[in-house]
Amino acid sequence: MGEQERGGRRGWWRRVHREHGTGDAGNTGEAGRPGSAGTPGGEEAEEVLDELVRRAAEAGDPQAMAFHGMALARRGDRPGAERWLRRAAAAGQPDATAALGLLLFSLHRPEEAEPYLRKAAGAGSTDVLGPLGLLLLERGDVERARAHLSAAADAGDRNAAELLDLVAAGMAPGTPPPEGPEALDRAEALLRRAAARGTPGALLGLGLLRAHRGDLAEAEDCFARAGGSGDPEALLHRARVHALRHGAERAEPHYRRAADAGSAEAQHVMGFALAARGETAEAERYYRLAVAGGHHDSLVNLGVLLRQRGDLAGAESCYRRAIDRGDVTAMNNLGNLLREDRGDPVGAEEWYRRAAEGGNADAQASYGALHAERGDWVRAEEWFRRSAEAGCTAGMLNLAQALSRRGHGLEAERWLRAALAPRPSGAPEPVRPSAGPGPADDLAQVADWLAGPAARGDADARAALDLLCRNTGGDSGDGDGDSDGAPPSRTG
Known about the structure:
71% of the residues lie in helices and 0% in strands. The protein is mainly alpha-helical. It folds into 3 domains: 3-210, Serine Threonine Protein Phosphatase 5, Tetratricopeptide repeat, CATH 1.25.40.10; 214-295, Tetratricopeptide repeat domain (Serine Threonine Protein Phosphatase 5, Tetratricopeptide repeat, Alpha Horseshoe), CATH 1.25.40.10; 359-421 and 429-492, Serine Threonine Protein Phosphatase 5, Tetratricopeptide repeat, CATH 1.25.40. The longest helix is centred in the N-terminal third of the chain and has 17 residues, at 3-19.
């Protein structure tokens, strides 16, 4: 839990500042707005007032432009708000300058926001000090950020006060993390003091620190309390820790809560879990939400899902979007789609080559198989070996077949054994064959096990069984005397 979480806290702070008004262009500070929704007449009076302000703004009154822009921001019309606030700020209206800076800050446009925030701060606006301090903090200008945040905290900004606690603890964006037991102890003491006030950011920071120190139970408690407000990042951290403590299945309800609160990573996790259970419609919904939230790994999984249900155009679009971001798995999958579904082996080979050169082990097996089909077994063996050494089962089986053709039966047998060895859960580690052959009765048991899937049409099992029988003098049962054996396997 390192730099990824620190970047995540930056996003959390932006949300807090917007939700509590610090980054809200509709928060006009001391200037307020003409009239009040609480005056006699209620909504009708409000509508009349807004109409009068709009007319005055269109007539060129700078203060009316500012009030009209703020009203549009409160109603969610941010393009309209920005247009009117820019006109008012250009006319020198100070409230518009502050509101425009806050609006641009809330839209994640820091370079545009900063000049307006600075100008408003220089004119005495306290509403902009918190966001301006955060922008400076993200840039690494900690001392100037601390000065602005302190002024904001003195003016009553609770969020700025909380961020100051995190700065002191080394848990805020832009600040060096605490190093060594004493620094961690100081950071923890500061965070506990802030967390005792129930502030979500301090609870999140304390949870990360306790997880770093191995206390997963307290970490989960902190994340649970921070997630009480519905914050997706806190909910995601709770799901992660719960999975570490109790397993992925029991953590699923927590991942679902985080996903439904807007965490793109949790949406990806939910999509994967649902797809594994065959709940493809719901899996697709979560994958699409994750993609919309910027989790680009979901593009590949969504493409797989769409291809399985026959939506080749949708799958290809997902793969190509992922490829634009350099995803080698998407390159391999696009090669599979072109070869198997579109009947385009030439197009497929180009994507297999790019994915193989990018280190994708499945693509290396498939690219080698294309060379073998053309009779270039020298290059085929090179790619099979790279794939096999990366832990790909198809690569191991293909390498065993290539070695058997050259009479290297002992090494071929070792790779076959490696291919059939149980795999640990998670990403495969590079697997190399064992030092020597095993007892013949073990090989007979392997052959018996392979016979079932081979008879049902499993190409990898068929190739392995043929190879095993040739090396042990057995009979694969198909009566085929072709010395070349089964064709090389390609990943699907």
